[in-house]
Amino acid sequence: MSRSLSLAVVLVLGGFLLVACGAVTTESDGSTVDSGVTAPRSYAPEPSSGSPSNASPELTLTGTVEAGVEKGCLVLVGNGTAYVLIGELAGVVPGSRATVRGHEATNVRTTCQQGSPFRVTAVVEATVGTDPAT
To answer: pTM of the prediction?
Structure first.
């Protein structure tokens, strides 16, 4: 009887560990977003009550999009800098060359384990299979 109880405990704990490995992003408002999907998706927009005084300036970044080390993470690499892309990512896929506009998201935590979070407000251009060096 104790052997079957031990097995049940191991199975339950194993299930909890699998659930804990999911990719979850915590937004500045305290809400969480499960980013454990492979397709790009929209995150909840920031409240439209105006721009906070500590908001980062709008930036336009260009680079190559790579799959992150964690499932569902997209990383834009350019000029030796890496940014984890969050927000509206239509047309942005690993292997594409992209130009995006947005803000550094200093108040956002991700499970992507690489790059600084960058909240994309617009995809200016995204092309697949284009190498600027050629």
So the answer is: 0.57
